[in-house]
Amino acid sequence: MIETGFFTVDAAPIDHELQDAGTTGPELAQLAASYISSPRAIVFREPSSDWRLFVILLPLASRLSLLTNPVFAQLTRAWGLNARFVGVDREHLVHDFRALLDDRTLRLLVEVPARSEIAPGMRRRTDEALDVLFATLAGEMLTMLGRRPDARLRHLDREHRLEPHAPATLFDRTGRYPDFLAGLRTALRDGIIDVDFYGRALRSIDLREDAIDARVRAVLESTLDPVTLAKLARTGSGIHLGCYNWLHIDPRHAAPRAHLLTHLPAFAHFFAEALVPVDARRLEEREEWAHDTWAHNEWAADSRREDNLPTPTFELRPLAARSASTHSLYWSAVLGQAIDSGQDRATIEALAQRFAVHDNVIRRIWRERPAGLGQPPTWQLGQILRQLHEGGDRNWPADRNAWQQLIASAIPAEAV
């Protein structure tokens, strides 16, 4: 039996005023009712023997009941771009399945908040059909993953963080409730509400969203491996799910990897994006050789290697990071071996070769661990290192403001 539930925002004293059409107008009252009643996250505990947890974070939109019509299929896909689908398997690894959401699954996801929409002034009703819908949705997700046996390892989460307000956080609020915020601004501009009411509404939104993020984060952390979380916490790099997977996927080498993260927390995104796929391919090959007889065939091994080649893409971030070049793939493999062997000098040299900079640039970051550098994404990290290499020791940033200026000016050529 799958344990299913969903999270909605907590009640606030301002709710009655927000949903009063005489105070805020019918349009904003409807948007407020949708914001208050719509599910924010759907949680499936123990959906199958292979999975500990599924969590789907849902964005909001007004009149979602209209999106259930097939005519609005394109709008449904645009709405689904802001959804997050995270899974935790039996080995406590975290997966990001957002790329696997197809049209049928998105229609089911739209139907969940659409059924919960209520008109302002009406009491919320308990819809028994939601239970059936949740069961159907869980079955659809398991079927979707069953059709993609490679999804378990090829979709390991490599980019998200569990800190609510950090860059690349799992709880991104930019596309979560755009209609409600636009309605508040319109009502303020038109003089329907005053500045004081607008400020109270925004404060209530912040408090509710922080509470939702904390609840979802607690659910996720409860299914993760506590030993790996403790090692990750001691590194000072934050709760980066990609780094968590990197430490947990191979427990034998977790200690040298945590040691490296402690000295180079600024490279957290790079380590996750470059090295987690390498470990995933190794694990996939070991599982195939252990369980599949055809994997011993030489032709099958060649086919498997062809499947692991990076797919050509026009997405800006991989192009700017130059992660698919022969040079990058070679030195990433060398870097992984150096890290797991515990050789700091070989690790620094492999990093310098990967980013085509002098060893002393990496050594100084290793030694000083500048807080102003933060944890830039991989596509920007290479440009930052190249500028540090060209500037030399005399132009090395001296304070946080200097680091911010350097980061702001580090724009890869592919982004120009």
C-alpha Rg (nearest Å): 24 Å
| Element pattern in H and E | EHHHEEHHEEHHHHHHHHHHHHHHHH
Number of helices: 21
Structure summary, number of beta strands: 5
Domain tally: 2
Low-pLDDT stretches: 119-126, 293-310
Spatial order of strands in the largest sheet: 1-2-3-4-5
> Any idea what the shape is?
globular
What structural category characterises the helix and strand content? Answer: alpha+beta
Q: Helical residue percent?
A: 55-70%
Beta content? 5-15%
Describe the sheet with the most strands.
5 strands, antiparallel
Mean pLDDT: 81
Distance between the termini: 53 Å
Task: Walk me through this protein's architecture.
The protein is α+β, with helices and mostly antiparallel strands and 416 residues long. It has two domains: 221 residues, no CATH class; 190 residues, no CATH class. The chain is built from 21 helices and five strands. A hairpin with a 2-residue loop joins strand 2 and strand 3. About 6% of the residues have low confidence.
